[in-house]
Amino acid sequence: MSLRDRLNESAPAVDVEAEAVSPMASRGDDDMPLSPLLGLRLRAQEKLFERLGNRLHDSTLSAEQLERSVHDELLRIIDAEQSPLKPEELENLVETMTDDIMGYGPLQAFLEDDRVTEIMVSANGPIYIERDGIVEQTDSRFLSEDHLRRVIERIVSGVGRRIDESSPMVDARLKDGSRVNAVLPPLTVDGPSLTVRKFARRPYEVSDLIANHTLTPRVAALLEACVAAKVSTVVSGGTGSGKTTFLNVLSSFIGEKERIITIEDAVELQLQQKHVVRMESRPPNLEGSGAIPIRELVRNSLRMRPDRIIVGEVRGGEALDMLQAMNTGHEGSLTTLHANSPRDALSRLETMVLMAGMDLPLRAIREQVAAAIGLIVHTSRMNDGTRKVVRISEVTGMEGDTIQLSDLYTFDWSAGTDAHGRVLGSAQPTGLRPSFHGRLDDLGIDLPADLFGNPADLIASGGRRDVRP
Hints:
The two termini are 50 Å apart. A hairpin with a 5-residue loop joins β4 (169-173) and β5 (179-183). α11 runs parallel beside α12 (318-326). This protein has helices at 3-10, 16-21, 36-52, 63-80, 87-102, 107-111, 145-157, 206-211, 217-228, 243-251, 294-301, 318-326, 342-354, 362-372, 437-442, 455-460; strands spanning 116-122, 128-131, 134-137, 169-173, 179-183, 193-197, 233-237, 260-264, 276-280, 308-311, 334-338, 375-381, 387-399, 402-411, 427-429. Helices cover 35% and strands 19% of the residues. The protein is an alpha/beta fold and 469 residues long. The strands form 2 sheets. The protein has a 9-stranded mixed sheet with strand order 9-8-10-11-7-12-13-14-15, with helices on both faces. The chain has a 6-stranded antiparallel sheet with strand order 3-2-1-6-5-4.
């Protein structure tokens, strides 16, 4: 067994409560769960922080210089312990500890695992991960609250953000684009909390979503046609349903000659086109000023000659500015929002427009929404951990005071699950044709003859294809 494996194997034995009192303290012989190897590691870390102190945060040193200082000092400390380690094991241990101190600690292994999509950390408990769509508890954990907090500070400082008692909540990102949310006490009662949403090293393509059964080739053909025809589209769904990944795939259908402006809280989209301007909101500084919210970026984007505006997620008053942009010559824009269904997505848009502080009558808001939004694609995370498109609805206009929706595709639950519990169904056409079908024909977009199915199929199913059995 390698030294790294032995370290990982001993990690679950750490007494976290005792570590929280003195994160780098060594244990006495009465602490049976602690292995000699882990005890050596803890003592070495304690001495390292005593010797280097503030040098670990010295901004005048390059990352390479600081890493070399940590490596050399650890080598001297462990060598002085007269440990029975072989030279190669000693070097391996020092390198592992250097990665832990200079990098992201126990997160590192999960960040390098392409199957892991989510990492969830609380100070006094094990690390949870989502791997292949399933949440599982791991044997890894941070040594203490201080250890976790140091890693959080290292992450947020790397992107010019801050987190402390006066600003105890932050969204940030890692160099690979992974999204990070961190929360400190007093907002979290039991210590710091950290959540990392990872993204694929290679951006997903539509072929990947088809292979994963997230959507069918027919759905892909419809959505590609809608993006090409500049049908403004909203991707709705719950947390972790794959909205951002799906938005990224939708954006890949935009032509190379178009100028694209993306606006996000923390940059997540991975557009492959050349003519892209990416903008990111800015939080307030230490004095509480200087914040630039998404709403201001949306308004500014209109002065940047965009062909497409992509808002990573609408959460508030920026919904009004986005709708106005869609209604004033910027068709084909894309965004996401949290909702339980396409109908709920419309209700949330109304609420967010009201958050803009404009005293608009409800009917006027609904008219704006009905005129701006052409399509709502709803995604869902299934019980087996897979993500699927479950409904595609066209916004067809107003009838009285109500926005009308027409379901083009709904999920077929009748397929059930296989022997392993995997959901077998997919979104199927209802037989209804969209009102923008003529626009697709005018643009010369050739669609499969069966793209929208046969209305008789919906009649035969009693119109209940999307109702769970």
